Amino acid sequence: MKYYILKCPEMMLFFNALSRLNILKKKIKIQIPLMNNMTVFSIQQRDERVNINQFVSIDEYAKHYYPISKRLKEKDQKEIPDYQALKSTLFQSGILVPSGQDKLLSLLADIRKQDILHGGDVYYIACDTNVLRDRFFSTCLSKMPYHQNIDFILCETVRDELKNRQDKLKKQKLKDIRTLNYDQLEECFLNQNTLEDRMRYVGFMEYNVIRSQTSCEEIEAPSKKNGMQNDREIINAYSDFVDVGKKIIFISRDNEIVRMMTGESNVIPIILEHKPSRRKNFSVTWDQFFDLLYMMGILFGKLRLVKEKHQIADIYGVWKGKDVEEWESGYVKLCLHATEHHTEITHTMGRNMSILKQLNINM
Q: What is the model's pTM?
């Protein structure tokens, strides 16, 4: 089986090859082997975008999820993503937007009308832990035009929460999940982080993206083992930071901490919520589609592309041996199945990768 280790945007090389062969004009199913090959949605190319069709409903997902989870011990059930985790990938890739985003963007638009040289305040955007896990900076805030009145602020308590790690998934742990195929679990998860730690790591990487792409302030604050105590430390840190001419816009999905922030001097709390959505069909950009595949790969380990019952390729977000650099750079592993188009796909990909290398283009 031919495989490639690619950065997330480099998946375009593979899908370009499928497009050249007219494969993307037909329906391609995206399946999840971990969930007994459940089809989560299908795709078709439409001009410069991707159509996502029939995204799996909560009822259909439950038909696969509950027979698996009910046979597991409670501690092992945590390794099987529930429907909310799956639906969150639509927000993490920017396909769905949280309620409250319009309110935030309207506030920021008003701030841009101010002039810091004529008494305008500087507003620092502070992202709570859950907003970082949602990749809200990457999907929304990073696209804002620069303005001297708007900056970002990070709190070490938030970073420490995102750095928390449990034990790696060892052989015995994977063997304990007896209702699932051990070989499949091993190829994806052996010596990798637990599901909860992988999701925290998504937030940690987002924290680092903000540090690298903005001129953000980073304030020291202690970290506690108790979540409510950490919330209080975060509130205290931001309250101590604000001053005359310095305000904080605090965004979170946690109603409780937003409530606690309300009334703090010079702090503007805004709640972002993932409202239920019955939408099944989406027209998305290629970047959004690749982010969706990657986030789903982090949840389930491996995704499978199928056309008319023929397996085309597997895309791994997690695999045995995935190292720190590959995690930090957002790499996937693409494995091509032996199909009638295998030679053409590998030839096209190899040629395009060679051209990019000669041009020294880093996607």
A: 0.93
